Amino acid sequence: MGPLSARLLMQRGRPKSDRLGKIRSLDLSGLKLLSEHLDPKLLSRLKQLQELDLSNNQLETLPANLGLSHLRVLRCANNQLGDVTALCQFPQLEELSLEGNPFLTVSDNLKVSFLLPKLRKVNGKDASSTCSQVENLNRELTSRVTAHWEKFKAALSPEEAEKAQADFVRSAVRDVRYGPESLSEFTQWRVRMISEELVASGGIQVREADIPERPPKATAAREPRAKPAALKRPDDTPLSLSPNKRVCTSSSSAHVEGSDGSQPTLEPLHFLQCHSKNNSPRDLETQLWACAFEPAWEEGQAGATSQTVATCGGEAVCVIDCQTGIVLHKYKAPGEEFFSVAWTALTVVTQAGHKKRWSVLAAAGLRGLVRLLHVQAGFCCGVIRAHKKAIATLCFSPTHETHLFTASYDKRIILWDLGVPNHDYEFQASQLLTLDTTSIPLRLCPVASCPDTYLLAGCEGGCCCWDVRLDQPQKRRVCEVEFVFSEGAEAAGRRVDGLAFVNEDVVASKGNSLGTICLWSWSQTWVGRGKQSTLAVVVLARLQWSPTKLAYFSLSTCPGEGIVLCGDEEGNVWVYDVRHILTQPSPLPAAPQAPTQILKWPQPWALGQMVTKTMVNTVVANPTFTYLTALTDSNIVAIWKRQ
């Protein structure tokens, strides 16, 4: 498609007219338009244009001077847009569609709300909740920039003050921080604007909320949730930026048992009901299954994580900022029940040849499908029909960003290569290996010291190991070794429902014996293998845990901190500091080691309702042990912060 012409605009405009100035609605969708094809001189002749459809093109930017001051509806879905600041030229805009622009982020959504004061709908949804979020962020940023100004000014002499104004703007952008990392682009953008306004006024006045007043609106309608349909597959509902219900925010310290005062204090920060059926606060039954912190993919930050966590349960996957408790994204798949989530990052090349880094979240569950969610842009960019039965757990390879293990109730573990999405953001996944199990696999764990060689799995029938080297000819393999945790009369075959490496060598596992978590050495165990198909683990220590007979309480670790975590049936979180075991292994003590801390569930908490009993079935912390997220069987996401 070449540059636009007046004849084309009259052909595709409504009402039909031989004068551009009378056209009120214009459809330019699907023409493969590039940004340079939008001629401002031509389009500015559309004096009465109120509705413009530019969807399904190849636009990377919008020209800044289109002259469409009366535009009320703009559709730009399925393009290559990477910036939204040019939208400020449409002050009358009420409806906007930006779906399918994979390089727009949640920060861009907030910019849209700030730039367009009359906006009522974004991507077909009410914009009022996002506007409220922007106003809260703006108020806090204004306060912080003003405080920074006072501190900055106090350090200057009167002669230096005038010359230092530009330095202040740079200083504010560098030093003023607030909110989640995923919103840093928006917050730095606003900090620059606020600080420049402050400097321009001579430091006398800065508006607390530089957002034009909007007409009052009704509260955003809650999105209904469809009942599961067994016989047909409903369309996936796209991610929403609407924040979900916060049950409560607590500033009081959690009740801690077993702490000697030298351990860091963990305080409950947020309790969220973001997976509720029909967003009902009365829903205390939706089961939450898994959560995972988003790694920090930036160069030089290996092993670090952001404060963003993904949770799954029921038909929803939520992405939450732990500091603020804001649900950044919510993805729904009616009829699904999500059991597992896992993160990776991919480098993709745009049609214009630009490289972009994507955070991709894989989610799977009851229907045997793996959904690949482009979190920043907010849509599902791929579905893999991985298994005929439910998928119990997912795990990305730590060394190959496109390699994904899926473990299913069909007693198979499959290694997939997702590949890199094409220009239409579609994945072409291929199957690399199939690993057969004798029982249902529950947890997956690549061996930390050789992740490309061996994979561990905790299963209903025990703990097994497979050779996963891709240079071997067999593409379908059976378990090479089954690990035995009991000595003497007790045989192998006990359920292992918790499995994670504490460091390069030490494995934490749970489920093989009541009331304990086992720490064992991979290297010391493996060196004695020989040709055996059953191998007794070399136990380094046992950790005291709940004596419950209930199963499927998943444990997790913070390898950099030497921490092991596990929930229980009473709503407690058991915290173990095992650094002394990792650094100076001693003979196996007769009695299990007691937990370093036990975090007690605060009650009452849920909207005035007393929850007399809840189980914490999953607990995960980021590697720096700054934030801890716990999931319950009563539909509550609990977030704790180390003080």
From TrEMBL:
Leucine-rich repeat and WD repeat-containing protein 1 LRR domain boundaries: 7-194
Compositional bias segments (type: Basic and acidic residues): 209-236
Leucine-rich repeat and WD repeat-containing protein 1 WD domain location: 265-641
Keywords, comma-separated and alphabetical: Centromere, Chromatin regulator, Chromosome, Cytoplasm, Cytoskeleton, DNA replication, Kinetochore, Leucine-rich repeat, Nucleus, Repeat, Telomere, WD repeat
Compartments where found: Chromosome, Centromere, Kinetochore; Chromosome, Telomere; Cytoplasm, Cytoskeleton, Microtubule organizing center, Centrosome; Nucleus
GO terms of biological process kind: chromatin organization; DNA replication; establishment of protein localization to chromatin
MF annotations from Gene Ontology: chromatin binding
InterPro entries, A to Z: Leu-rich_rpt, Leu-rich_rpt_typical-subtyp, LRR_dom_sf, LRR_LRWD1_dom, LRWD1, WD40/YVTN_repeat-like_dom_sf, WD40_repeat_CS, WD40_repeat_dom_sf
Oligomer and partners: Integral component of the ORC complex. Directly interacts with CDT1, GMNN and ORC2. Interacts with ORC2 only when non-ubiquitinated; this interaction prevents LRWD1 ubiquitination and degradation. Some of these interactions are regulated in a cell-cycle dependent manner. Interaction with ORC1 occurs predominantly during G1. Association with phosphorylated ORC1 during mitosis is not efficient. Interaction with CDT1 occurs during G1 phase, as well as during mitosis with phosphorylated CDT1. Interaction with GMNN occurs from G1/S to mitosis.
UniProt-recorded name of the protein: Leucine-rich repeat and WD repeat-containing protein 1
Organism: Vulpes vulpes (Red fox)
